[in-house]
Amino acid sequence: MLTYKYRNFYEMVEHNAKHRPKETVLLVDERKVDHLRLKQKVDTFARFLEFSSIKNGDKVALIIANSEEFIVSFLAVTKIGAVAVPLNTFLKREEFEYILSDAQAKLLICSPEFAGETSGLLEATPVEKIVWTGHYDKLDERNYSFVEITGSMETHEQLAKAPKLDDLACIIYTSGTTGKPKGAMLSYRNMLSNMVSADEVFQITAKDRFIVYLPMFHSFTLTVMVLLPLYAGSSMVLIKSVFPFSNVMKQTLLKRVTIFLGVPTIYNALLKAKIPWYFLWFNKVRLFISGSAPLSEHALQAFNQRFKRATLLEGYGLSECSPAVAVNRSQKQKPLSVGPALPGYEVKIVSEEMMELPLREVGEIIVKGDCVMKGYYNRPDATDETIVNGWLRTGDLGKMDAEGFLYIVDRKKDLIISKGINIYPREIEEVLYKFEGIDACAVIGVKDESNDEEVLAFIQLKEEVESIPEIKLKQYLKSHLANFKVPKHIYTVEELPKNATGKVLKRVLKEHVLSGKFPLK
């Protein structure tokens, strides 16, 4: 049973402003923002939202690049009991239009660099006003300047109705790998449960410093990299973009970062990069944490050999669980495992009939606990399919050992069934990753004329490698895998399609195959 010292996010801001007012909370380039100044900005922007008739329960969308403005906006929106809807900034106009309409967003806060893709949204969606976080030269009665608002309005601290633990705080739209994206409704309890559990496991203190360079709209970044530091009274280094990556490394060293969170593509890049000796010697990182997609066993071992003074811990989560579910511990971790469930959560492996399976047997991962979302916004049918008797069906396949360590086998939707036999793409990918010269890979199943599935692999080569003969790769795979698991075709591509957090978009690869871009014969 988890206990909560805060009912909402604003109470965290209030607590820090009262107990450590002059301590730095944000480092943005050469600028520092202390806890008291952050609270003042949140109060000021919250006042504007109230003047703009934003009420408890109203939806406010954010299309904002990583910045102080994102944090201030998110905290101000939730302070007054409105619901924040952070949107993927990589989307296109039609996708923005769909989500803003689906969420019934009343107000949009937007970075000017997205003005092109958001043009016309005032006419096409329920959005009544847009607040621009930077310079925008078309200000009028429906377009406002964030800088002018936060620089001119009075602050206020009185709230007509403070948000409670079970109130809706945020709607995170899933990436929509199949069909239209769905909005996962997360309450304060959902997201705070992640902070309480992570704080206990990682033993975060006010002396810790996080680096935030992954997109803030993503649930992993938002909860674990932005809100968790606020919960613990820590500080964070804000980086607008992961590119150039050399800047991320430079800021990690110069600003004495202690907690570094990333995704497998980042850690694979770190393994390839020529890192100067003084970074390895003088950096202060004590924890590297990986989420979003599985790390290969090879990458995990190589990373721990290179960064000997820190620990790389792999975890597992999904937006519908706010998002963290399980993570390895500094005291004990197991290769290829994502660790035990976080404190306060339950994880089981079940059959199609939702019956619990024996240890080490593969089945669907289900999760129960305060992290489980309230449901999908305006999608009761999808909610009923996903949450059964309080258990969230993740759609991921996994197995559990006797110590409660969880192993992700694959996405249920990625499972390949060939001639009645289950084939797990990740198993094949793990073997491919060990082949010298392969930088990234993905394995998919595509149905043939007989409605059976054929195994296909896509590989991305390391920069210095010109080519790898397909026959050589197949011979290698046959020496490590049963013949039925060996892909019928192995295609070499310049770059695998990925989403904002580095997950390979297997749906796109399947579309390419079905459209004839990659011949099956």
UniProtKB/TrEMBL annotation:
Location of this chain's protein in the cell: Membrane
The name this protein goes by in its record: Long-chain-fatty-acid--CoA ligase
InterPro entries linked: AMP-bd_C, AMP-bd_C_sf, AMP-binding, AMP-binding_CS, AMP-dep_synth/lig_dom, ANL_N_sf, ATP-dep_AMP-bd_enzyme
Keywords tagged on the record: Ligase, Membrane, Transmembrane, Transmembrane helix
Taxonomic lineage of the native organism: Bacteria, Pseudomonadati, Campylobacterota, Epsilonproteobacteria, Campylobacterales
Primary localisation category: membrane
SUPFAM superfamilies: Acetyl-CoA synthetase-like
Entry membrane topology: Peripheral membrane protein
